[in-house]
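Journal club prep, notes for RB
We'll compare a predicted complex against what the paper describes. Inputs for the pyridoxal-5'-phosphate case:
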Amino acid sequence: MDIQELDREYVAGTYARFPVTIVGGKGSLVTDIDGKDYIDMTSGIAVNSFGACDDVWYKAICEQAAKIQHMSNLFYTEPCAKLAHMLCERTGMKKVFFSNSGAEANECAVKVARKYAADTKGEDYYTVITLKNSFHGRTITMLSATGQDHYHELFRPLTPGFVHAEADNFEYLKVLADAHKTAAIMIECVQGEGGVVALSEDYVKAVAQFAKENDIVLIVDEVQTGNGRSGQLYSYMNYGITPDIVSTAKGLAGGLPLGATLLGEKVKDTLKPGDHGSTFGGNPVACAGGVSILGRIDDELLAGVREKSKYLFEEFTGAPGIEAVSGMGLMMGLKTTKPAKDVVNACIAEGVLCLTAKDRVRLLPALNIPDDLLKRAAEVIKKCCA
Ligand SMILES: *Cc1c(COP(=O)(O)O)cnc(C)c1O
């Protein structure tokens, strides 16, 4: 049986995969089983921050794998401590809990917020306000956090204690916060799966101020927007706010599973021994990948992300068949006249991998995609949209 047949036969049918089998890659080019090259405008959904098999990253993870691939969290290891230090230095956050995915990073954030609220206000202060159209992950609790009904339907009962506010409507959020004993507010500054929609600056600032005044824990889900994707290290930095908790994953370790929940001053000591844990969280190989990636997301790289973003916005704005361009940094959504899925299939046939989000074409290239490849990809995408 060929790979696609084997997969369809034996892998749970949860993904509507494109009919492409990828066997390798280098940087922003990936190759399929027939030897066809594609410019990768997806980076594994914002995971391969420096593209496929980046040399520096590859060396870092191999060196760590050759030393020791895993220890339990009952012992100290260097990459975990080093990465936590780097994350705190770069953000001003105080402590980090490591896990393996975005959903887990968010689960930890909610646990911390609920414990903080129980400790300071009482156990009935457990409600978490999230936004409509948000996406926070696939565990039962994160489905509950996710403000999109179609993710909920088949899996009730969901975890109680989540209510959903309309994005960019501050008055509505205040009404919800008054109606419920609220532990936390959780937002994505740019809603990724929701169609690559950036929240307005006024709204995000008002929410942050409100959370602060009412001692409500502000959680920013940076799973997709984080680690340089927005043109700043974390997307909240574009808004001039300071969250209490930042969750991240996807691009953090450049292609290995790693989640991180960054805890600010207010909640840095909320978790005590035994309150939370993970077998694989803080895995040395994944963290060595994180150290390599984070160390290279410097001012120069971030300026490059903003420049490439500006180039793409200019290319796509007003182009035939493109009705709107949304997003931030190298996280971009195109509202196209043709159905997004048709545009993506046409791009794939022409050798450019793209994604969809809701009714939009979604672009998430590697942060260091070379300008010539970016230009070629933009030309193909424009042609397929027209
Ligand atoms: C992808 C994503 C998640 C879930 O991450 P997993 O690693 O798939 O669990 C959570 N929040 C946001 C904003 C995401 O984009």
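Talking point for the session: The pocket of pyridoxal-5'-phosphate is lined by residues 101-103, 106, 135-137, 188, 192-193, 221, 223-224, 249-250 (CB under 6 Å).
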